[in-house]
Specification:
heterodimer; A: mainly alpha; Arc Repressor Mutant, subunit A; 20 helices; B: alpha/beta; Rossmann fold; 3 domains; six-stranded parallel sheet; 19 helices
Chain lengths: ~350, ~500
């Protein structure tokens, strides 16, 4: 599965981003550049889908793709071959990769997963009168949350356990058999301890990274199903409480944005916040990325914006350097990044398949 | 029934004390500073957990192992003892602030040594009133200990600051020289010593010399084909632990997993609990495994690689047979095995030839702004390992050259350089000697039991099991069968989910 996702990334990024860009995307690096890439290259669904992926694992996947002649790589860049492109066109491959909602949910899944694992361990053990067990999740916040839920449900534990069971059944029905199986094998409770990623990879004869991806997709689907009809999923909605898709903007960027909105110049914000100019610029780009209504005229005139956008279109690229040189160095890199970020909101709907050669 | 037994029964559910526990508990209850050396698995922690419960004020436990701390807090809470917490650097900041503000709510507070450098925490403890100050893994205070920790050397200052509460220093392994060092570094020469024998009378010892790592694998396979008992195999590298686990899986019809510090937190927890829950037969692990794991029926400890000193070896084999039943230790040795621990020693201590350059670097920082960069930066700039830099930094602090990050006086002092060089060499020789002791034990032709324990205690007790391969033990003859299996529901996801939720399958 990772192999196919990497292929898609290579296809969409069209050699404009190095393989590091793919790595940052999949691990969900929270930088304005990576988030901008996710949107610009229509790869939002894969943003942060495998946060613990290691560099060498990606390298391994790239090597194997190269051996299969689906891509050619040099040290930094990778390009799809005809064989790779044909492979991706197969219908079942497209289906295999649907269902991810990375950019929306990547921040929610780690906590939700921990909550579910610990909640299930706790309620099934206590309901089965096993009062002494070592929590499978260390996280103090998650433990406090489970304690809270338990104390509010202790008098109707039996029915809460039944509800949770039914809801999980319903969600897992909507997943593939394999993914449902992987999910339940992770669970600990009622005297059984769940399996590790390595054990699941062994058992199902798939790569460990694919176990991560499958489980991540189960979570994305779960969140999606529950959010679409919260009244039918009271127990799982409870698990999502307080985890709403938090705004993508970082706390620090928020503060910068606060000053920008009040008319401060970049220099003034640099002074005030004692941060580097480049950091403040990153914050502004980040704000432009996630806030469609953020006006950027004070940094780039409307005319400048239209020049930059036109140049990017005519060069068919998002690579800053080419645009920068194409415009005879008239605009700074910051102005170009900011403009592209802002105009993402307005040109995003160039459809996923349409825009790709 | 006397009061201590009554409290033991009510709070911990035991009917009687184990060897050595009672005297130590009585000592600390009477306010006597005590050094307690108790072997692993004999209930060291009860020696302060019970007093903590009985004393009016707070009991502070300094522990270097965060995972151990967390495990103990969990265990205590599971037993219904709630007024307990652990303060460490992994704690969420808000959580830490909340706990620090409410220290008086707790009877027992575990704290990592570096947290005691935090004034807020020390002030909080002072206000609350500490009755008992416990130093767990006290051998870490000694430079001669196998896990020397510089933060431990400042503990005597904290004890003073807290108004000299009763001190209990605990360790599972401490040679007489380490014991003396503990008393000296704590500035408590009159400390009362309670040393209990660490020899395990229910463990048989064997060492096998082989020619290659592959032959180790063959030995292990043959042994585990005929013996079916809970087994741990120790490795000094993560890669080897994984590799052998995978190979054994193809060769043996057993439930095997690996465990090392590089795994994700939840996966580590799962493997530990699977082993505890008899869902696994064999664990291939590094020394990261086992802290706080109290599985009673481990029968066999195999060392695929040997640890760099006897102390660690004693600690690791001590995990076998905690229920008192017959158990065995097998160490496999191949000719080049000492290279790895040798390299480890080298990575822990700085190269003496580089010392002038390092001092020059610090001197230049003094000229620039008088402040040391962050440790990560220094380590990168000077291409040192973390422990190499810690060593140098500590020595500079001792010499009054630096105070935390501030550089107080010139560092390019020839006397200091000479002293530092000497210290490095001394330390290197010490570690080398430790390693040699271990290797020497491996090549021992006399009784292994006697030679293993002789530097730790005066007499070695007679074993209840065959002694060792120099005496009458032959590991090739054991054919133990003792399988405890917790079966896991197989089949479809629907069946498995139903079984976890304790109900029949809906469809």
């Amino acid at each position: 599965m990772l192999q196919e996702i990497v292929l898609i990334c290579i296809k969409h990024m069209k050699e404009e981003r190095t393989v590091s860009g793919i790595y940052h995307l999949l691990t969900g690096k929270r930088s304005s550049q990576t988030m901008q890439d996710a949107k610009a290259y229509q790869l939002s669904s894969f943003f942060g889908v495998h946060k613990s992926l290691e560099r060498h694992e990606l390298t391994e996947v790239l090597q194997s793709l190269e051996e299969k002649e689906m891509i050619v790589t040099d040290e930094l860049y990778a390009r799809l071959t005809k064989k790779g492109a044909l492979y991706l066109k197969q219908r079942d491959i497209q289906n295999q990769l649907s269902g991810f909602r990375g950019l929306d949910y990547h921040q929610v899944t780690p906590v939700l997963t921990k909550r579910l694992l610990l909640l299930i361990q706790t309620v099934t053990n206590l309901n089965g009168k096993k009062n002494s067990f070592v929590p499978i999740i260390d996280d103090a916040g998650v433990q406090a949350w489970v304690r809270g839920v338990y104390s509010s449900k202790r008098h109707q534990l039996e029915s809460f356990v039944a509800t949770l069971y039914e809801e999980l059944n319903t969600v897992l029905e909507a997943c593939s058999k394999r993914e449902a199986y992987l999910f339940v094998c992770r669970l600990t409770g009622n005297g059984q301890v769940g399996s590790t990623y390595d054990q699941l990879a062994d058992e199902c004869h798939i790569k460990k990274w694919d176990v991560h991806l499958h489980l991540e997709r189960v979570m994305h689907q779960m969140i999606h199903i529950v959010k679409a009809d919260p009244s039918s999923f009271s127990a799982l909605s409870l698990c999502l409480e307080g985890l709403g898709s938090s705004s993508l903007i970082t706390e620090s960027a928020k503060r910068t944005y606060y000053y920008v909105e009040r008319g401060w110049t970049i220099e003034e914000i640099v002074q005030k916040r004692r941060l580097k100019e480049s950091t403040i610029q990153d914050h502004i780009v980040e704000a432009a990325l996630v806030l469609p209504d953020f006006r950027i005229e004070s940094f780039v005139s409307l005319e400048g914006q239209s020049l930059i956008v036109t140049m990017a279109r005519s060069l068919q690229t998002k690579r800053l350097k080419e645009i920068y040189l194409g415009l005879k160095e008239e605009f700074s890199y910051f102005q170009i990044r900011l403009t592209l970020a802002h105009h993402q909101h307005h040109s995003r709907e160039e459809s996923l398949h349409g825009s790709v050669n | 029934m006397d009061r201590l037994i009554e409290e033991l029964k009510n709070n911990f559910g035991y009917d009687h004390f184990r060897d050595g526990q009672r005297t130590i508990i009585e000592d600390v209850m009477n306010g006597r500073d005590t050094l307690g050396i108790l072997p692993t698995g004999t209930g060291k922690s009860l020696c302060y957990q019970l007093p903590a419960h009985l004393l009016k004020g707070v009991t502070v436990v300094v522990s270097p192992l965060i995972s151990l701390m967390v495990d103990q807090v969990k265990q205590l809470k599971a037993q219904g003892i709630k007024a307990v917490t652990a303060i460490n650097s992994f704690m969420d900041r808000n959580e830490r602030i909340r706990v620090t503000k409410n220290l008086d709510r707790y009877k027992l507070i575990y704290v990592s040594p570096e947290m005691l450098q935090n004034d807020d925490i020390v002030d909080g403890l002072k206000r609350t009133g500490v009755d008992l100050f416990v130093i767990d893994e006290a051998h870490c205070i000694s430079q001669w200990g196998h896990e020397f920790r510089t933060d431990y050397l400042k503990l005597h200052l904290v004890i003073e600051e807290l108004g000299d509460p009763t001190v209990l220093a605990l360790s599972a392994t401490a040679t007489p020289e380490v014991q003396d060092d503990i008393l000296e570094k704590l500035n408590k020469p009159d400390m009362n010593k309670r040393i209990h024998p660490m020899d395990k009378t229910n463990i048989s010892f064997a060492v096998k010399h082989v020619t290659t790592p592959e032959s180790k694998l063959i030995e292990i396979t043959q042994l585990l084909e005929r013996t079916h008992v809970p087994t741990m195999i120790y490795f000094s590298s993560r890669q080897w632990a994984e590799r052998v686990a995978t190979e054994l899986q193809t060769k043996l019809n057993k439930r095997i997993a690996f465990y090392h510090g590089g795994m994700e937190q939840t996966d580590r927890m799962l493997v530990q609990q699977q082993f505890m829950n008899d869902q696994l037969d064999i664990i291939c692990c590094t020394s990261a495994f086992g802290m706080g794991v109290d599985k009673k029926n481990i029968r066999l400890i195999i060392h695929f690689h040997f640890p760099p000193q006897l102390e660690s070896f004693i600690q690791e084999i001590g995990r076998a047979g905690r229920d008192g039943a017959a158990s065995a230790s097998l160490l496999l040795y191949a000719p080049k095995d000492h290279y790895l621990p040798q390299m480890l020693i080298e990575s822990e201590l700085p190269d003496v030839n580089r010392l002038p350059g390092i001092l020059n670097y610090v001197e230049r920082k003094r000229g620039q702004n008088g402040v040391l960069p962050l440790d990560e930066v220094i380590i990168g700039d000077l291409e040192l390992s973390e422990s190499q830099w810690n060593f140098i930094h500590f020595q500079m602090e001792q010499a009054g050259m630096v105070d935390n990050r501030h550089i107080m006086k010139p560092t390019e002092d020839p006397d200091f350089l000479q002293k530092l060089t000497m210290l490095v060499q001394e330390r290197w020789t010490y570690k080398q000697n430790k390693l040699n002791e271990m290797v020497h034990w491996i090549h021992e032709t006399g009784c292994r039991r006697v030679s293993l324990y002789q530097s730790f205690q005066d007499n070695t007790r007679l074993p209840e099991v065959p002694c060792c391969d120099a005496c009458e033990f032959d590991i090739d003859e054991i054919e133990w069968q003792e399988v405890n299996r917790t079966e896991i529901a197989g089949g479809t996801w629907e069946e498995r989910l139903a079984s976890i939720f304790g109900r029949g399958v809906a469809r």
